[in-house]
Amino acid sequence: MTSTTITVNGRAVTADVEPRLSLADFLREHEGLTGTHTACEHGVCGACTIMLDGRPARSCITLAVAAHGTDVRTVEGWDGDGTMATIRDCFRKAHAVQCGYCTPGMLATAYDIVTRLPGADRDRIRLELSGNLCRCTGYIGIVDAIETAIAEIEGGS
Amino acid sequence: MKPAPFDYARAESLDEAVRLLAAADGDARPLAGGQSLGPMLNLRIARPTLLVDLSPVAELREVSEDEDGVTIGASVVHSAIEDGEVPDPTAGLMRRAASGIAYRAVRNRGTVGGSLAHADPAGDWAPVMMALGASLGIRGPEGGRSVEADAFIADPLTTVLEPGEIVEAIRVPRLSSGASWGHCKLCVKPGDFAESLAVVVIDPDRDHCRVALAGPTHAPILLEEVAGTVADANGWSDALAGEIKDAAGRGIAAAGFADTGDRYAINVHSTVTVRAAREALSR
Amino acid sequence: MNDRGVGASIPRKEDDRFLMGTGEFTPDVRIAGMWHAAFNRAPIAHGRLLSVKAPKGAEGQVFSSADMADIKPIRSTASFPGFKGADFPVLARDKVRYAGEQVAIAVAPTRAEAEDIADAIEVEYEALPAVVDMNDGREPSAALVHDHWADNVCCETEFANGALEAAKEAAVHTVHRRFRMARQTPFPMEGRGTLAHYDSRLDELVVWMSHQLPHPMQRGIAHFLDLEINRVRVICPDVGGGFGLKTHLDGETMAVCWTSLRLGRPIKWVQDRLEHLICDADCRNHQYTMTAYTDEIGKILGMEVECVVDAGAYSPWPWPIGVEAATGVGNLQGPYTVDALKGRSVTVCTNKPPSQPFRGVARPGACFTDELTMDAIARTVGREPWEVRLDNLVPPEAMPYDTVTRKHLDSGDYPEAFRRCVAAIDPEAVRERQRTPEPDGRLIGVGFACFYEQTAYGTGPFGYSAWGIELVPGMEMATVKLTPDGGLWASVGIQCHGQGLETTLAQVATSELGIDPDRIAIRHGDTATAYAGTGTYASRSIVVAGGAVAQGCRELKPRLARIGAHLLQCDEAEVAVENAEVRGPGGSVSFAEIAEAFYHHPENLPDDTDRGGLTVTTGYNDKVHGGVFGFGAHGAVVAVDPETGQVEILDYAIVDDCGTRVNPLVVKGQVIGGYAQGIGNALYEESDYDENGQPLSVTLADYHVPAAPMVPDIKYDYMESPSPYSTMGIKGVGESGAIGPVGAIGNAVNDALKGLGVEIAETPITPRRVFDAIERGRAS
Q1: Distance (Å) from the C-alpha of residue C670 to the closest C-alpha of chain B?
Q2: Which domain holds residue B73?
Q3: Out of C190, C665, C673, closest to residue A101 by CB
Q4: What CA–CA distance (Å, rounded) separates C39 from C41?
Q5: pLDDT band at A11 (very low <50, low <70, confident <90, very high)
Q6: Would the pTM count as exceeding 0.90?
């Protein structure tokens, strides 16, 4: 067992864990934050994407012990964030959600696109989404949502 | 898909990392961003007995620049290069290459040294560093040494690193102002490992012209005949494309880079080489 | 009038929980004392199983088939000629028949520990030659997948209708082609998962499953475990996609249920991606040999076809071996006026995972075959494929139209929908562009595909009931209840895994009663709350559950009217029930007031209040039982790189007709989602095996699910031809989008390659296949 201290959604958590425990399983099993989903566990599909020190990261291939000292934000941790509220609203209106399994990871990547690439056009949005698989929506609604979110945030700021 | 059990140690310095690796019984491995090792662990393809976490080691994140080039700490993440946070002595080649590695979430954690040391034959950095004539600084129990990038990967997933050795930094030479490069990566989906990846660097002022090729089944190679053809070229033409394609085919065959019966693979590799050369010669 | 009922594009009610990360999927469910399961799996595709030995110290945590003598093999039935059951053992018994077949279950407090134990189980095998390809499997020299059979053919069907000999004689052209679809996997983002827990208070095995068919699973688990149905409850909570994969009863689930009962402990198994890609059910591996007979202008007079299906090793339950082949042959004429068809299907067992229907069932294969044949006909007769299609499509004046395969096409204007698709693509402009070589050397092509979508079919004569299979969908039931505060609660036996039915079924009720969708709770996916049902598959749920919910609302109305009239002190004949109230000549009384009277102040009720109260359980069955038929026309423009074989979609158009659209936003979402999967089918996805039956596509590095850059924007249009047979004219739409792309893209690629004299006839159309075709063209 190894001790790890991670700030999860603003609260510091210290736990003794097996070194092999992934950050995703730490969040799900230890913290009960089951909004973070695992779907491929080899870093490709993006379902487990969370924010780590403010940047999207794969929680399935990041060890909980290696996340020691980091600041993690999961889908459950966006209360009060206006940008995420806008993104969520755009997802809703554009029908960017079907089964909901990829959605938490999509939101993390969408947040990254909206904040890091405010000039992104549809092609760039698609390129940036290539690490987040969705099997239901065909992506078009997701691209619509992110495009609209960029415009709304741009227009509102 | 959970890893087999292993022990874990955090190294606070490079010396400590080297010491921990040297002292370990069995298969001890350094852990940097974990973006290559993580999947291997989860798939239980890699079953190390000990992981030595390099992420606390500040010196591995250092970057220094001088007139002749830039030395990039092995733990610098791909996205830092992509975003230009690291000085780029290659007129954009490194930024292009970085932006095509996997996905942003992976680039935020994955490191340039870790990627090279993992030595996936279709990895993005090796052909770039080979074409640039970069070298790798290596630290081990016996001290430090330097290895040219083109001599670093021996076979797929195998490097010249001795047990206990760690990639410390990558020394990237500065391109002259008249230099030019081409980078062509063919893959099924953006971010995939390359089906074929060619990098061409032409730097006449430094008398440097190199063509590197990477693919999924063989360690990356330098195509010397193609480099000679490109160095002598004067503008782009269909005839030159044909010459390069033929020369690439010969180089691929000579190196055993693709199965001789696999006409598709040979064609793709030589076509990608032509496209990288075209980009370099059209700049 | 509440304007959020049928026809309104309202955002989905279920979105909030998914956007907040508070959905509950099977892997999210935790019960005190729960352990995790992992499986030891066969490393070879075919071999005798000699021994299974648990690692030292873990003897009580490992179980194999030898321990499970009291569990029955999963056995499916069918009345197809020569049908051989191919019992699916819960854990391998005597033999393993595909790489990855589950041999033993290991349980431990964590998944990682369970995997450690599963890894350490010692299993001895005697390797046998593997049957990898379906055609090889038909050879007399082939190894036998099932030793007690004479050969590997497990089912053959024949179908003939119309005067084929006369068609052959009258034919001016004969077009002959062979088509093949690779194996692929449905790949829902969430894999399978099962959590079994014995509830001693209720003496009930509670099974959480990531599944589409809760009630059939309840029946199957009870049957194969030899339990009373009363003692099994199946809950399918939020399910991360299904696409047909999660319609059969898997051995892992049975082993988890058995182990949970044996140990008296909740056991959870979450299928990981490696398991999914190595050994979960695959699909689509069909081969069609088509001969079409046409007149001078390409009007099809008759078709002759053989369909060979690779079934894998076992027959899944409840959809057995043979359903794929029968569906393929049964739709081969497409939406065209073909008068004679003779079809034969052969289903072959191989040493690969079982084959399972995937969105569209066999119809993408049928579409690939009939649509590529249509373009081959056009090239043969020297006309444009869109012109030839228009001459063959069933015209609107012929509706309802019985196809040669006895599909009763109920409504629609197929030529008009297709013309709109053609207009959106503008193929004449593509022809113009093709006259000049592209600057980048790529080849441009245009292609179309038309298909009907048979949705929500039931007991009709040429489907489930004719096949003699375990599960024949008929009456679909709903329970509808006015709640004490005037809201509506409805439970249904379908299951929602992304289709938005919690919203769309509410919209149906809104249209009937005027209650706002936000005040309507739709409950599904739980055998304890739904009276009956067969789940969600075959584009049925909005039609059948929508019909049942509407019927329930309609039966509730007179009861509400009686109480309302009494409260309003007027005659029942004078009141109207709408807009969530009962309105009489002198005023109105809200549903909430009626409910208040019924539930809390019965002293205010009339003496003749309906004894059924304010809840109705009722059903839906369409008037013809053969389903209601949607239609789709797809068009694609592609660029083919002859140097690398890469295909890029430059333009794509879809015109879809699913009758009355309950929620246009959701309808479009279903169509686009299907389109993306169709692109995977057409260009990328392949579950490949080596000559020993070892799976080669076991991670996402090898199995290519389309990502956002591979799914371009589309031009989307719709028509609404209500079905005369269903409630409100609704037709299903779930599978539609997935059927067409393989035809449209395949034709566009072949159009691009036509100057080279080659055709592609196999999916996925990978760069390697395109390159090989071009090489063949150069060689000849």
Answers
A1: 23
A2: 58-173
A3: C190
A4: 6
A5: very high
A6: yes
Judge contact between C356 and C248, C-beta under 8 A: yes
CA–CA separation, C762 and C351 (whole Å):
21
Chain C CB within 8 Å of residue A149 CB: no
Boundaries of every domain in chain C: 15-21+475-620, 32-128+190-279, 286-460+624-779
pLDDT in tens, C159-191: 999 999 999 999 999 999 999 999 999 999 999
Spell out the residues 6+ positions from residue C756 whose beta carbon is closer than 8 angstroms to its own: C443, C642, C774, C777, C778
What does residue C205 show for φ and ψ, rounded to 5 degrees?
-85, 115
Chain C residues with beta carbon closer than 8 angstroms to that of B271: 643-644
Q: Are C324 and C95 in contact (CB under 8 A)?
A: no
Contact B5 C112 (CB under 8 A): yes
Q: Which domains does chain A have, with CATH numbers?
A: 2-77 (3.10.20.30), 82-155 (1.10.150.120)
What is the share, in percent, of chain B residues with pLDDT greater than 70? 100
The shortest CB-CB distance from A39 to any of C16, C17, C190 is to C190
Q: Considering the domain boundaries, does residue B240 fall inside one?
A: yes
Put simply, whether B84 touches A (Cβ < 8 Å) is no
Rounded distance between C-alpha atoms, residue C407 and residue C455, angstroms:
11
The CATH number of domain C286-460+624-779, selected from 2.40.10.10, 3.40.50.970, 3.80.10.10, 3.30.365.10 = 3.30.365.10
Q: Are A108 and B108 in contact (CB under 8 A)?
A: no
Q: C15-21+475-620 — its CATH code?
A: 3.30.365.10
pLDDT value at residue C374: 98
Q: What is the pLDDT of residues C680-704, one digit of tens each?
A: 999 999 999 999 999 999 999 999 9
CA distance C37 to B27: 28
Read off the CATH number of the domain in which B134 is found: 3.30.465.10
**Structure tokens given for C554:** 């309609």
Instruction: Look at the domain C32-128+190-279 and name its fold.
Output: Aldehyde Oxidoreductase; domain 3 (3.90.1170)
